[in-house]
TrEMBL record:
PROSITE patterns registered for this protein in UniProt: ABC_TM1 (PS50928)
Subcellular location field: Cell membrane
TM stretches of this protein: 12-35, 71-96, 108-127, 139-156, 187-208, 262-281
Protein topology in the membrane: Multi-pass membrane protein
Protein name (record): Sugar ABC transporter permease
The ABC transmembrane type-1 domain, residue ranges: 72-281
Main location per the UniProt record: membrane
Keyword Transport: yes
Pfam families in the record: BPD_transp_1 (PF00528)
């Protein structure tokens, strides 16, 4: 019996090690291709072991280092501020919905759920932030539209509050004379770190990967975030490829320019900081998503 249990545990460990290695292989391949020589990619294709190492793709991307640094700074600023504000508003909306004595609680919950099924459309959304709220060519345009409440996150957090915070704890604090603000800040928030870290990770990913709002609302290159700057770089390369057949000058320039390796370097530059930040969220991620997913 003991040998069977040990064999089962060893099999599970081997399976998850193989699964982990399989999950990391695509990232490793992307990195290896990004430091490969362009000519070796054209001759031999993608490989985990480059036949010739070259950092030409990163030299191409970081040719204007100040522009990359500024774009990174804008992305980091918008991600941090947007995530904090989004978490605050989501929590302030989800906590009252978890209280059974809230008037019209079910109606408000249905109204929030209804927004998951229907939206006002792109044109009214755009006009709101350009005409009604003049945010064009400002950093607010990359924070406020993404900060709008996510119905999924609100319902997820509401379910966590309902299932994980006993009503008796809140009643005891009320009997002791604690106000609603004190209960929320000193009891609810400390007990809700798992779900807040989980939703914080979702929101951080959304802000970090956002290039669409920058494309819609930003015309000044000085305000481009890193994702949109990378997207424009890739678009410019594709434009040169398209025009290389009709222009000898473009063809000569394209011959000296890394193409496939730049695509992979763009992925590394864009996702690298998130890979470093994820371990800090992992401690709370699993417990937060499983607790919030249980129906109340």
């Amino acid at each position: 019996m003991i040998k069977t249990n040990k064999l089962s545990q060893a099999s599970i460990h081997v399976f998850f090690w193989l699964f982990t290695i399989g999950s990391l292989l695509p990232f490793l391949l992307i990195f290896m291709v990004s430091i490969s020589d362009e000519s070796s990619i054209e001759s031999n294709g993608y490989s985990l072991i480059p036949s010739k190492i070259s950092f030409a793709a990163y030299e191409f991307l970081f040719f204007n280092f100040s522009e990359i640094t500024k774009a990174y700074g804008i992305t980091i600023f918008c991600t941090i501020i947007g995530t904090m504000l989004s978490l605050l508003i989501t929590t302030l909306m989800a906590y009252p919905l978890s209280r059974v004595n809230l008037p019209f609680r079910r109606s408000l919950a249905f109204y929030i759920f209804f927004t998951m099924l229907f939206s006002g459309g792109m044109v009214p959304w755009y006009m709101t932030f350009v005409n009604l709220l003049p945010m064009k060519n400002s950093m607010l345009a990359m924070i406020i539209p993404g900060m709008l409440l996510s119905a999924f996150n609100i319902l997820l957090m509401r379910t966590f509050f309902t299932n994980s915070i006993p009503e008796s704890v809140i009643e005891s604090a009320t009997i002791d004379g604690a106000s609603e603000i004190q209960i929320f800040s000193k009891i609810v928030i400390p007990l809700s770190l798992p779900i807040m870290a989980t939703i914080g990770l979702f929101t951080t990913l959304a802000y970090w990967n956002d290039w669409y709002n920058c494309m819609l609302f930003i015309d000044k290159p000085a305000l481009y975030n890193i994702q949109y700057l990378m997207t424009k770089t890739l678009t410019n390369i594709q434009y040169l490829i398209m025009k290389s057949n009709s222009s000898a000058q473009a063809g000569e320039l394209l011959a000296k320019m890394p193409r496939e390796t730049v695509r992979m370097a763009l992925a590394i530059v864009g996702i690298g900081p998130l890979l470093l930040a994820y371990p800090f969220f992992q401690k709370y991620y699993i417990s937060g998503i499983t607790s919030g997913a249980v129906k109340g």
